[in-house]
Amino acid sequence: MENIDETHREDPNKPLKPIEHDYPAHENDPGPSPEAVKEENDKGAGPAMKWAIPIILIVLFIVYWFLFKK
In the chain, what percentage of residues exceed pLDDT 90? Predict the structure, then answer.
């Protein structure tokens, strides 16, 4: 049983809100800002994980090889 408040569930069939250009006119229920929609995701964990995960896997494989293959 999940404890999800039904008032905060979004309808997946409902169209998305348009990008907000006049915030004061829609202050009670604004759409997303242009910066939030057009923002690139080049910073953060994604680029770091592309390098960290393979390095960690190689190190773990080497440790496994030396400890359990002898």
Answer: 24
